[in-house]
């Protein structure tokens, strides 16, 4: 790393090489990701949203997007399962909404994790095979938009759109 980046400027110590030299220790930790299963992100009257509902590699670039999507989907589920009658009816509707939320979010997280894993392996070139793919992709497919060619066949994993409906409020207004 120092050979390639040692002379890159650093605002405090001058260069990245100087930063590494003055560091007492350098901790190396592998990047990890994990998508929780449905029963892990929803339990009784509790659900996980945002980063708590999944651990994604930074190559996915989806942290804030997932948090916003999660909140939107959770609100949609709560609106789709309105409380009816007594406290048992309220609890039942609430439980149905949380189960529906968890069921909707897991597949999206799994698809994004798959793309993030592929992107991470290709970018880091952790084996010779991945380096060959990374370094030769433009030559193998010149001028081809790989995203467009896959979209029609199996769907591009990051193009998912959540369908959020409108619900009539108590006063008859649509929201």
How would you portray this structure in words?
The chain is built from seven helices and six strands. By secondary structure, it is mainly alpha-helical. The chain has a two-stranded antiparallel sheet with strand order 1-2. Strand 1 and strand 2 form a beta hairpin. Helix 4 packs antiparallel against helix 5 and helix 5 packs across helix 6. It is elongated. The protein starts with a helix and ends in a 24-residue tail after the last helix. The model has no long low-confidence stretch (mean pLDDT 80).
- Can you summarize the main beta sheet? 2 strands, antiparallel
Q: Strand tally, please?
A: 6
Label the overall shape. elongated
Question: Helix fraction?
Answer: 40-55%
Q: How would you state the average pLDDT, rounded?
A: 80
| SS element count, helices | 7
Describe this protein with a few key phrases.
175 residues, two-stranded antiparallel sheet, 7 helices
Helices, strands, pairings?
Elements: H1 2-5, E1 9-10, E2 14-15, H2 16-22, E3 34-35, H3 38-41, E4 42-43, E5 46-47, E6 54-55, H4 63-80, H5 87-124, H6 128-140, H7 146-151
Antiparallel strand pairs: 1-2, 3-6, 4-5
Helix pairs in contact: 4-5, 5-6
